[in-house]
Design brief:
By secondary structure, the protein is of the alpha+beta class. It has two domains: 2-63, 434 Repressor (Amino-terminal Domain) (Orthogonal Bundle); 77-179, Sandwich (Jelly Rolls). Helices cover 25% and strands 29% of the residues. The protein is built from five helices and nine strands. The chain has helices at 2-14, 19-26, 30-37, 45-55, 59-63, and strands spanning 81-83, 90-94, 105-111, 127-134, 136-141, 144-149, 153-157, 162-166, 172-179. The strands form two sheets. It has a six-stranded antiparallel beta sheet with strand order 1-2-3-9-4-7, with no helix packed on it. It has a three-stranded antiparallel beta sheet with strand order 6-5-8, with no helix packed on it. Strand 1 and strand 2 form a beta hairpin. Helix 2 (19-26) crosses helix 3 (30-37).
């Protein structure tokens, strides 16, 4: 996780912010931010999101070991970056290369039978689009359940409390596009 601290410091300095200014913008202590930048502690996902929002970038650009904007516009199937943030039975893959200027985040979700986001709904800023590529998924928005099968799509505001789960006997795959980008 040392690369995260290096990237935060580089991006903070590039924007002309002091450690204290960035910490204040994030509502965290300057001490915590300093420990993250020096690699003495690893930030939580929530803290990474605060840093990304404060610097107006994606989490992906914080965790990347690439030094420049990507010249790679194609991501081959065997080169997809797997995200380790999914719950048990769920795998998420980035479908684009790192780009600090991207406006959306397309992801491939693979869910084993009964896998999903959990019983609790969650919400956040942004919008989401989902296309079911294989299998079937139940999406809950507020208290309404929607059953999506192969080829079906849904588009909703992420501020609506939502959850999802695979209801297929076997694996379900979905193309998931989130805006603004988070990873």
């Amino acid at each position: 996780m040392k690369i995260v601290g290096i990237n935060i410091r580089k991006l903070r300095e590039k924007k002309g912010l002091t450690l204290r200014e960035l910490a204040m913008n994030m509502s965290v202590s300057a001490s915590l931010l300093s420990q993250i930048e020096t690699g003495k502690t690893s930030p939580s996902l929530a803290t990474l999101k605060k840093v990304a929002d404060a610097l107006n970038i994606t989490i992906g650009s914080l965790i990347s070991d690439r030094q420049e904007s990507p010249s790679q516009i194609i991501v081959r199937a065997d080169e997809r970056q797997k995200m380790d943030r999914g719950s048990k039975g769920m795998q998420m893959y980035l479908l684009t290369s790192d780009d600090p200027n991207k406006q959306m985040e397309p992801l491939l979700f693979k869910l084993e039978e009964k896998a999903g986001s959990g019983k609790e709904t969650y919400k956040h800023f942004g919008q989401e689009f989902i296309l079911i590529l294989k299998g079937a998924m139940e999406i809950t928005l507020n208290d309404t359940n929607y059953i999506l099968k192969k080829g079906d799509t849904i588009y909703f505001n992420s501020s609506t409390p939502h959850s999802f789960r695979n209801i297929n006997k076997g694996e379900t795959e979905a193309l998931w596009v989130v805006t603004p980008p988070t990873f």
